Amino acid sequence: MEIHLSLVELLLIIFISVLSVSLVFLYFFSKIIISYKRKLRSQSVKFGQISEQFIPLHSVFPWDSKQFRFLGTPIDGIQFEEDQIILIEFKSGNSDLTTKQRKIRNLVQNGKVDFQVIRVK
User: Fold this and answer.
1) Beta strands per DSSP E along 1-121
2) Partner of 112 for a Cys bridge, out of 40, 80, 100, 107, CB 3.0 to 4.6 A?
3) pTM to 2 decimals?
4) How far is CA 86 from CA 54, 62, 64, 76, 107, in A?
5) Is 71 part of a structural domain of the chain?
6) How many domains does the chain have?
7) Nearest CA-CA partner of 48 in 24, 64, 72, 27
8) How far apart are CA 50 and CA 63, in angstroms?
9) Which runs of E-coded beta strand occur in 43-96?
10) Range of 79's domain?
């Protein structure tokens, strides 16, 4: 039994085969890229968390680092000065404040900050 294909049919079969193989390749390649992006993002976050603990010791920090207290979350820390208390969030690159950090900033800007004493007997 012989199968006779026209040139157009043969080219169509080749085209569909190449297209199918290409799509499968692109699918698996995109999975690899996504995996690397996640790893890179995770490393970037870890680097940021580590490096922000050292920023108060760097020359770019404009206050006395001995008066800085590291919190980590939801903001990085608090700087205690003689005439003010400053809530500080360190950012690098194009990173933005989180929703929670923006809410904290807005509360401070609107004077919604309080001081309470809790006594335990």
Assistant:
1) 68-70, 77-80, 85-88
2) 107
3) 0.62
4) 18, 12, 12, 11, 13
5) yes
6) 1
7) 72
8) 20
9) 68-70, 77-80, 85-88
10) 55-109
Strands 77-80 and 85-88, by their bridges, are antiparallel
Please report where in the chains the tokens 């968390």 appear, as a residue. 49
**55: number of CA atoms within 13 Å, CB side?**
23
Cα-based torsion angle of the residue sequence 9, 10, 15, 21 in order, rounded to the nearest 10 degrees = 120
Q: For residues 20 and 26, what is the distance between their CA atoms, to the nearest angstrom?
A: 10
- 105 falls within a domain: yes
One-letter identity of residue 35:
S
Domain-located, residue 76? yes
Mean confidence (pLDDT) of the chain = 90
Assess if residue 87 is contained within a domain: yes
Q: Encode pLDDT of 19-70 as tens digits.
A: 999 999 999 999 999 998 888 888 877 887 788 888 999 888 999 999 999 9
What letter represents residue 19's amino acid?
L
